[in-house]
Amino acid sequence: MNHQNSIQEFERARKTIPGGVNSPVRAYKSVGIPPVLIDHAKGARIFDIDGNEYIDFVSSWGPLILGHAREEIVEAIKKTAEKGTSFGAPTVIETQMAERIIEMMPSVESVRMVNSGTEATMSALRLARAFTGRELVLKFVGNYHGHADSFLINAGSGAMTFGVPNSPGVTKATAKNTLAAPYNDLQAVEDLFAKTGDKIAAIIVEPVAGNMGLVLPQKGFLEGLREITRKYGALLIFDEVITGFRLSRGGAQALFGIDPDLTTMGKIIGGGLPVGAYGGKREIMETLAPDGPVYQAGTLSGNPLAMAAGLTALNILNDNPQIYSHLEQKAIKLADGFRKNIADTGTKALVNQIGSMLTLFFNDGQQVTSYDEAVASDTKKFAEYFSLSLENGIYLAPSQFETGFVSDAHTDADIDYAIKANREALIKMKERE
Ligand code: KE4
Questions:
Q1: How far apart are CA 424 and CA 433, in angstroms?
Q2: In whole angstroms, what separates CA 382 from the centre of its chain?
Q3: What are 332-353's pLDDT values in tens digits?
Q4: Where exactly are the structural domains of the chain?
Q5: Annotated catalytic residue within 28, 54, 139, 267
Q6: Does residue 419 sit in helix, strand or coil?
Q7: Which residue, judged by its Cα, is nearest atom 15 of ligand 1?
Q8: Is 1 exposed, middle or buried (0-12, 13-18, 19+ CB in 10 A)?
Q9: Contact 82, 321 (CB under 8 A)
Q10: Span 62-81, mean pLDDT?
Q11: First-to-last C-alpha distance (Å) of the chain
Q12: Measured in angstroms, how far is the CA atom of residue 64 from the centroid of ligand 1?
């Protein structure tokens, strides 16, 4: 494939945009080749500025569960834009959006719209601290909740596992209020709460982890978090920015039957436009300004254009629940096809899959159920696989530690082609060994 225009345009971008990108992962640093710049996309297809065509398994990192440029969503955006895009005033469509989210997301009784997942999680944390009067928050190593300071924290050393900043600019003062525990390690959570449970405002967790590659909650893990938080009077925050409306019409909480106190949302609820949201039990949400004292605000929060796109997407998902079983069938077929190729080629790799989410780990372990197991994967091998896939017309997330997505627009033929391309890549990699 020719990537001349992408190479030139990326060099040009680097002159005026930090790293040439508006979000770091897009720079392809961990796969060691220049990124392709995208011209347009439709359905499951994405096209770069050199005219190369790919089957897209990134879906803009999750929002495009219905595929790119879905007619109903484009139509809704066009019609809304003609009436004005933002007023900074209440509109009926915001109420319709809140009612739709509440109807689909079991634990949510009241919801506030914001403009990104980061805004949703940082606001939910402030709300949890205000509601409980406590300062500490417990997150899990390998979970990503956006780039607010309180979440850019790695597990510290030492018994208390106090956080340490994982980015310059995050202060020690902030980090000391964030505890970090290994994902799927309920005993570690129990131990932390036994020591300091009366100071912990909340646990925030990705109910299915999508940011260390796909890692599933082990049996009893989520239930255990719910029990521990109830026992110590802390709130349970489900970060469903990825899983919300993806794993089922009620997200992971409906799939696993857990009742969190707060839920953060994003991606799919924007229909491809910038939207985030946080919601939960009414008595907690009512402490938010203007009725309550907890301040949070946003110029473009709930703007009609983004609401029109997001509400159209949610309405399609709500009215066609069979989409979820179709998504899962396609993802299972893809995962099983990869597993057969891995076995046939003797490749040290394994696949985690749930619903329409999957990750192929270049990992010689029996399983990847934790951050430590995930980071033991061979990122060089992944980078080689990524490049071979790209040249074969398969557009993957440019990192071993991300999740792939199947959309409603992927056909069986797309899945068959992706399995074939996977096999060719693994064979080529074997030949090079
Ligand atoms: P945004 O601020 O990027 O809208 O959402 C932050 C966020 C919060 N919670 C979870 C579970 C998330 O996965 C994210 C963002 N996801 C990443 C990719 N896994 C976005 C891609 C990027 O950073 O460019």
A1: 14
A2: 20
A3: 999 999 999 999 999 999 999 9
A4: 4-69+321-432, 71-319
A5: 267
A6: helix
A7: 146
A8: middle
A9: no
A10: 98
A11: 24
A12: 14
pTM as predicted: 0.98
pLDDT digits (tens, 9 = 90+) for 32-45: 999 999 999 999 99
> Does pLDDT of 300 surpass 60?
yes
How much is the CA Rg of the chain, to the nearest whole Å?
A: 21
What pLDDT sits at residue 161?
61
Is 144 marked active-site?
yes
Question: Taking CB atoms and a 6 Å cutoff, what residues make up the pocket around ligand 1?
Answer: 23, 25, 61, 116-118, 121, 144-146, 206, 210-211, 239, 241-242, 266, 276, 402
Query: Span 12-31, mean pLDDT?
Result: 97
Asked if residue 194 has pLDDT above 70, the reply is yes
Helices (H), ranges, 269-411: 282-285, 304-319, 322-345, 371-374, 379-391
Mutate to test the pocket of ligand 1, among 22, 58, 113, 211 (most ligand atoms within 8 A of CB): 211
Q: Tens of pLDDT along 220-230?
A: 999 999 999 99
Q: What are phi and psi of 21, to 5 degrees?
A: -140, 160
- Given ligand 1 and candidates 60, 145, 240, which is best to mutate, with the most ligand atoms within 8 Å of its CB? 145
Hey, whose CA ends up nearest to atom 5 of ligand 1? 117
Answer whether 339's CB lies under 8 Å from 360's CB.
Answer: no
**430 CA to middle of ligand 1, Å?**
34
| pLDDT tens, position by position, 93-130 | 999 999 999 999 999 999 999 999 999 999 999 999 99
Fold of 4-69+321-432: Aspartate Aminotransferase, domain 1 (3.90.1150)
Q: What is the CATH number of domain 71-319?
A: 3.40.640.10
**CA 214 – ligand 1 centroid, Å:** 14
